[in-house]
């Protein structure tokens, strides 16, 4: 494939199949993201029971909120770790 080409990928989320376009180098990440999303949606659904219509949208919104929270929490943790390492490096004595 040449630069800029897209490939069509089929993913299943909550027992529904979706066709998504992505770059050839993004296929594995897309599959992983779909598996992660499906898992989080199923977690929320198991907590509230089987849902249809608007309830299904609410489950998707709650799963999305949980995913964003996971992302932001991980980002904050990485930022804190980076600050700790920077402080250690700054406090280290200079090399000869």
Written description of the protein model:
With about 100 residues, the protein is an alpha+beta fold. The protein has a single domain (about 5-90), classed as Double Stranded RNA Binding Domain (2-Layer Sandwich). Helices cover about 60% and strands about 15% of the residues. A two-stranded antiparallel sheet has the order 1-2. A hairpin with a 2-residue loop joins strand 1 and strand 2 (about 15-20). The radius of gyration is 20 Å and the shape is flat. The N and C termini lie far apart (about 50 Å). The model has no long low-confidence stretch (mean pLDDT about 80).
Low-confidence stretches: none
Total strands: 2
**Subunit arrangement of the protein:** single chain
The CATH class name reads: Alpha Beta
Give me the Rg, rounded. Answer: 20 Å
Structural class category: alpha+beta
Shape: flat
Numbering strands along the chain, what is their spatial order in the largest sheet? 1-2
**CATH homologous superfamily caption:** Cell division protein ZapA protomer, N-terminal domain
Element pattern in H and E:
EEHH
Helix content: 55-70%
What separation lies between the terminal Cα atoms? Answer: 52 Å
Supply the number of structural domains: 1
């Amino acid at each position: 494939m040449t630069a800029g080409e897209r490939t069509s990928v089929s993913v299943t989320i909550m027992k529904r199949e979706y066709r998504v376009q992505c770059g050839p180098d993004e296929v594995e990440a897309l599959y992983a993201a779909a598996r992660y999303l499906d898992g989080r949606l199923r977690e929320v659904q198991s907590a509230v029971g089987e849902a249809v219509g608007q309830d299904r949208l609410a489950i998707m919104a709650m799963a999305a909120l949980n995913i964003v929270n996971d992302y932001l929490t991980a980002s904050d943790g990485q930022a804190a770790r980076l600050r700790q390492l920077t402080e250690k490096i700054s406090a280290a004595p200079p090399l000869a």
